[in-house]
Specification:
With 453 residues, the chain is of the alpha/beta class. Helices cover 49% and strands 13% of the residues. It folds into 2 domains: 154 residues, Orthogonal Bundle (DNAb Helicase, Chain A), CATH 1.10.860.10; 260 residues, P-loop containing nucleotide triphosphate hydrolases (Rossmann fold, 3-Layer(aba) Sandwich). The protein has 18 helices and 9 strands. A 9-stranded mixed sheet has the order 3-2-4-5-1-6-7-8-9, with helices on both faces. Strand 4, helix 16 and strand 5 form a beta-alpha-beta unit.
Length: 453
């Protein structure tokens, strides 16, 4: 029969006393391995309170470039209030005495990280069980919470919680060093349009970018242009969620943009031998890209989030378009305040998803007809359809406008304007682009895009 002590031990979360002691002992025996340990472990990875306090002391000393040895560590423990007259000195000596060798510190680290992972899973399971027992959440809510927590564990971070500014500063320094070493002139992923990249600093992780226009302005074409460039050049996987067009229609549009064969020819199939060669070369180029397409017309933000969590090395999410999306609860009333609330919830969920997945989310949106009644028909932020919350949630708001759409006699009917109406990374303004309707493609004004590689 198990004793009461045995039962109490079973209730403890997974940990390895030996591995924790061996890591600390290695750091005290050979200070050269301190940087390796600090690079891979955090204070919370230690389960035993005494070990946690010693590691926190060494971590702090390392940040201040102090000499690390048994004497200095004990002195700093006194300053931090962690020193126990009866135990601390003896325990430090015990750590050094019981550690076989500092050469195996990498293996000790892996044991601790595995135990940490088990603890995180156990904690998540406990939270989910508590949610179920409360009985106030739906199955869909609990499923979403479960996926969010497991994804956070996979990414090596807590689902939520306070983070010391020192950790954030380290991440910022790492990012600045990465940017300084990079050959790219912009910090974010390229749109394939140089002038636009310079204006918005590219598509940056955690950003919600809204691309809005009246029907027929080419917002799907522009989104596919961005998708094509990212899928070919970024080295990351890009996901396109189309609630309006089928996978086959999208593939035809991508082929047309890639090989410069008139879209009408592709739709009718009336292709010359030269066209077939171009299509074959474009298809080969697309086959080597990392573009993924989903044409589920009833998709929700939760569905997109769940699908994208399973994609390794994800770099960009594109959604066409916001007003066609459903709330997590399914179909809702499309009229009045109810629909406005749904759109607000969706836009907020998209921003949260961008932060959680740490990728840019490019979402297309329809505009209301308010601009049609104005003399100057260029869109404004107030034209965003059904909800001002979209404007608040988005980091960047882009409007597409072509004078040729309204006035066929204009001097340059294929001149397009990308109006940057909101930009958290810089100034607002207008970028001029060249619209090529037969290939449904946007290009820089002065440059010609290269054909397939």
């Amino acid at each position: 029969m198990p004793t009461e002590t045995d039962e109490l031990l079973l209730r403890q979360l997974p940990h390895s006393v030996e591995a924790e002691q061996a890591v600390l002992g290695s750091m005290l025996i050979d200070p050269r391995c301190v940087s390796e340990v600090i690079d891979k472990l955090r204070t919370d990875d230690f389960y035993i309170r005494q070990n946690k306090e010693i590691y926190e002391t060494i971590y702090s000393m390392f940040n201040y470039s102090l000499t690390i040895d048994p004497v200095t560590v004990l002195e700093n423990m006194k300053q931090n209030g962690y020193y126990d007259e009866n135990q601390s000195r003896g325990y430090i000596l015990q750590l050094m005495d019981t550690t076989p060798t500092a050469a195996n510190v990498g293996e000790y680290i892996e044991i601790i990280k595995d135990k940490t992972l088990l603890r995180r899973v156990a904690e998540a399971a406990g939270e989910l069980t508590a949610m179920i027992q409360e009985g106030t959440s739906t199955g869909q809510d609990i499923l979403e919470a479960a996926e969010q927590r497991i994804y956070a564990i996979r990414q090596g971070r807590a689902a939520r919680g306070l983070v010391p500014i020192s950790d954030v500063i380290i991440d910022v320094y790492d990012r600045l060093e990465e940017l300084a070493a990079s050959e790219n002139a912009i910090p974010g992923m390229s749109t394939g349009l140089r002038d636009l990249d310079r204006a918005i600093s590219g598509l940056n992780n955690t950003d919600l970018i809204l691309l809005a226009a009246r029907p027929g302005m080419g917002k799907t074409s522009m989104a596919l242009n961005v998708l094509l460039d990212a899928g070919k050049k970024s080295g990351k996987k890009v996901a396109f969620f189309s609630l309006e067009m089928s996978r086959e229609q999208l593939a035809l549009r991508l082929i047309s943009s890639e090989c410069f064969v008139d879209n009408k020819k592709l739709v009718t199939g009336k292709l010359s031998d030269e066209d077939w060669e171009s299509v074959a070369a474009a298809a080969d180029s697309l086959n080597r890209s990392t573009i993924y397409i989903d044409d589920d017309s009833s998709v929700t933000v939760a569905d997109i989030n769940a699908k994208c969590r399973r994609v390794e090395n994800l770099g960009l999410i594109v959604i066409d378009y916001l007003q066609l999306m459903q709330s997590a609860g399914g179909k809702s009333n499309n009229r009045g305040e109810n629909r406005q609330q749904v759109v607000s919830d969706i836009s907020r969920s998209l921003k949260i998803m961008a932060k959680e997945l740490n990728v840019p989310v490019l979402c297309l949106s329809q505009l209301s007809r308010a601009n049609e009644s104005r003399n100057d028909k260029r869109p404004m932020l107030s034209d965003l359809r059904e909800s001002g919350a979209i404007e608040q949630d988005a980091d960047i708001v882009l409007f597409l406008y072509r004078e040729g759409y309204y006035n066929k006699d204009t001097e340059n009917p294929n001149l397009a304007e990308c109006i940057i109406a909101k930009n958290r990374h810089g100034e607002t303004g207008t970028v001029e682009l060249q619209w090529t309707p037969e290939f449904t493609t946007f290009t820089d004004m002065e440059g010609r895009r290269e054909k397939y590689p």
